[in-house]
Amino acid sequence: MRTGLSEAGKVTLSDAPFEGVDFGPLPPQVHALLQEGVRAHRHDNAAADACFRAALEQDPAALPAYLCLYKIHTYGGRLAEARAAALAGLAEACRQAGWPADWRDWPPLSGSAEGPGRFALYTLKALAFIALKDGRERDARAMLERLAELDPQGLVGWQVIGELAAGASA
Q: What is the pLDDT at residue 7?
């Protein structure tokens, strides 16, 4: 049984087999490890973590592996591990995009970011969420302010975290 979303946005259950997650173009062995980790994460976080880390050992440039790591650790409340994975993914995305490592120094975007740049923005949003959950509201706000400058249309969905931050201070 697997879950999904209906067109109305409601959670649905299905007996259809797990078809995997589209992580984009990756080496086959990395893709297989990520799929194995996704299947494992609901019942064995340690196995999922091992799969995602093995994927990174195979290909340290595989941005989806960082995403998987920081998501499972964030969902599991292991915020220090989530933050470490997100920071590592952010560094790799910046390297691939040719951006400075420090998000405060990122150049203004011309149009919407794609590829590693979009991943960097998305991961900065994740870091803002992690900071908020970890009680570092000032850090979260600084990241969100920078995201508002870089992504004024909110293409990576940072506004949702901004609303959570506003609620946290109210």
A: 46
Read off the pLDDT of each residue in 25-29 and give the average, rounded to a whole number: 93
What does the DSSP assignment read for the chain? -EEEE-TTS-EEEE-SPP------S--HHHHHHHHHHHHHTTT-HHHHHHHHHHHHHH-TT-HHHHHHHHHHHHHTT-HHHHHHHHHHHHHHHHHHHT--SSGGGPPPPSS---HHHHHHHHHHHHHHHHHHHTT-HHHHHHHHHHHHHH-TT-TT-HHHHHHHHHHHH-
Domain boundaries, the chain: 24-169
> Domain 24-169 - what CATH class?
mainly alpha
For the segment 116-140, the average pLDDT, to the nearest whole number, is 95
